[in-house]
């Protein structure tokens, strides 16, 4: 396994420079590392725009970006400009999208345990949809409307009893789930009846999300079949099938494009006689492959007869996915993106945890050395957004690149940021 990095894991606008170095959006990654420091998230802006356009081409106004994958004001503006609405899962995500001047009507508020404050703020702002997840939430909405809040448009989130082929922590369509109302037990129908009878909400449709990093179109088709039967007698105008489309992270993985996925969903819905307008909510498929993370190698520690540890200046605080889900990544040296990678090492971070692993069995070029900039591709989703300050590490900046320009959209944290909320 000494092959070079497969190029399809890199952002759309990745090219090889005249010295064999990686260039994204016309920017040399080594120059970016020099200018902005490492760790650094580098996003190909046109890649993000192209994926958003793909979703909008297929679903128009009913293409929603799941902002939990990656959110900052520049990202909220970008997907809004491209015509997507935005799924916000908390008051915090809602606040960032509103701070980017995205109209509240383009936001869809999610969450299995929305607080009274989150609901009140969303209703006062006039969010486009609230995706209702429980009877307790209905109680809270009714109390707020009774106290003067405007009645929201709602979708009801249901679980179709479909177990998607993915990590158990990110599967959400099965009956044993904290999310939504169960179809199989009749609870979902009870929720529909209650919402229809309530003056405090305007029920416009059903929502379902079976999980994340799902590759098989079949899992979505199964969910649609359950939803077709469930919604047939309801005559509701909207049906959102959620996000979840998987992306390739490592050599050998393949996934359908957003357009292919959309075509499959649309034709499955048509053949099931679904007449409601179909909506989708991708996060990962928009953002993941748009970015690479740059690190600097700080130590190379060969352990005789065991393995070599390569430690970089980030780790589980900028990418917790390997620790949480055992997720795999590739790695490469941007100075020689096409180089063979004959040496196997373990790429680890700088945190006080043995589990702080970024790439368990990484293939790297044989001349990797301390001081090298090392990169991991496909880090645009659930990396920056799931980042932390563990060990009081400063969160990395985010740069958008396009046509040779690099635009800082999130700056690196400073020690003052760490103390901003510390009032003791
Ligand atoms: C309700 C909902 N919609 C959309 C998404 C986006 O999922 P993905 O990033 O896998 O497309 C998620 C996350 O799994 C979700 O919980
Ligand atoms: N954080 C998960 C996806 C969760 C999706 C949110 N419902 C991941 O990185 O794969």
TrEMBL record:
Its EC number is 4.1.1.20. It holds the Pfam family Orn_DAP_Arg_deC. The active site is at 352 (proton donor). Pyridoxal 5'-phosphate binds at residues 244, 281-284, 382. InterPro entries: Ala_racemase/Decarboxylase_C, DAP_deCOOHase_LysA, De-COase2_C, De-COase2_N, De-COase2_pyr-phos_BS, Orn/DAP/Arg_de-COase, PLP-binding_barrel. Substrate binds at residues 284, 321, 325, 353, 382. GO terms for biological process: lysine biosynthetic process via diaminopimelate. CDD domains: PLPDE_III_DapDC. Residues 46-288 form the Orn/DAP/Arg decarboxylase 2 N-terminal domain. Keywords: Amino-acid biosynthesis, Decarboxylase, Lyase, Lysine biosynthesis, Pyridoxal phosphate. GO terms for molecular function: diaminopimelate decarboxylase activity; pyridoxal phosphate binding. It catalyses: meso-2,6-diaminopimelate + H(+) = L-lysine + CO2. Pathway: Amino-acid biosynthesis; L-lysine biosynthesis via DAP pathway; L-lysine from DL-2,6-diaminopimelate: step 1/1. Transmembrane segments: none annotated. Its cofactor is pyridoxal 5'-phosphate. It comes from the Bacteria. It is an enzyme of class 4 (lyase). Residues 41-380 form the Orn/DAP/Arg decarboxylase 2 C-terminal domain. The modification N6-(pyridoxal phosphate)lysine is found at residue 68. Specifically catalyzes the decarboxylation of meso-diaminopimelate (meso-DAP) to L-lysine. Homodimer. PANTHER family: DIAMINOPIMELATE DECARBOXYLASE (PTHR43727), GROUP IV DECARBOXYLASE (PTHR43727:SF2). Belongs to the Orn/Lys/Arg decarboxylase class-II family. LysA subfamily. This is Diaminopimelate decarboxylase. It comes from Euzebya pacifica.
């Amino acid at each position: 396994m000494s092959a070079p990095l497969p190029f399809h894991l890199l952002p759309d606008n990745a090219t090889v420079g005249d010295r064999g170095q990686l260039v994204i959006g016309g920017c040399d990654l080594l120059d970016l590392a020099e200018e902005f420091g490492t760790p650094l998230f580098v996003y190909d802006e046109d890649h993000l725009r192209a994926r958003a356009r793909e979703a909008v081409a297929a679903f128009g106004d009913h293409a929603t970006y799941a902002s939990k994958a990656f959110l900052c004001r520049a990202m909220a503006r970008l997907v809004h400009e491209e015509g997507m609405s935005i799924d916000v899962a908390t008051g915090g995500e809602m606040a960032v999208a509103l701070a980017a001047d995205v109209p509240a009507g383009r936001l869809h508020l999610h969450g299995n345990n929305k607080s009274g404050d989150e609901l009140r703020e969303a209703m006062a702002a006039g969010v486009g949809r609230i995706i209702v997840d429980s009877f307790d939430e209905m109680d809270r909405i009714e109390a707020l409307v009774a106290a003067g809040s405007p009645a929201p448009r709602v979708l009801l989130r249901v679980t179709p009893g479909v177990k998607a082929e993915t990590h158990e922590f990110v599967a959400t369509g099965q009956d044993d789930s904290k999310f939504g109302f169960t179809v199989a037990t009749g609870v979902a129908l009870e929720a529909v009846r209650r919402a229809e009878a309530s003056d405090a909400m305007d029920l416009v449709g059903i929502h379902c999300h079976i999980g994340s990093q799902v590759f098989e179109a079949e899992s979505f088709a199964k969910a649609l079949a359950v939803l077709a039967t469930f919604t047939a007698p309801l005559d509701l105008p909207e049906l959102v099938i959620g996000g979840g489309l998987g992306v390739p992270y490592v050599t050998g993985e393949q996934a359908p494009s957003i357009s292919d996925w959309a075509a499959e969903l649309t034709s499955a819905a048509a053949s099931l006689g679904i007449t409601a307008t179909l909506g989708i909510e991708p996060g990962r498929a928009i953002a993941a492959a748009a970015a690479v993370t740059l690190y600097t190698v700080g130590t190379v520690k060969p352990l005789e007869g065991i393995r070599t540890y390569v430690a970089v200046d980030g780790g589980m605080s900028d990418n917790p996915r390997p620790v949480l889900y055992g997720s795999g990544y590739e790695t490469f040296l941007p100075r020689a993106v096409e180089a063979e990678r004959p040496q196997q090492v373990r790429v680890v971070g700088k945190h006080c945890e043995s589990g702080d692993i970024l790439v368990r069995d990484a293939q790297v070029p044989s001349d990797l050395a301390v001081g090298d900039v090392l990169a991991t591709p496909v880090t645009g989703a659930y990396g920056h957004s799931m980042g932390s300050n563990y060990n009081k590490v400063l969160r990395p900046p985010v740069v958008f690149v396009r046509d040779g320009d690099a635009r800082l959209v999130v700056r690196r944290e400073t020690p003052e940021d760490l103390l901003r909320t510390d009032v003791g």
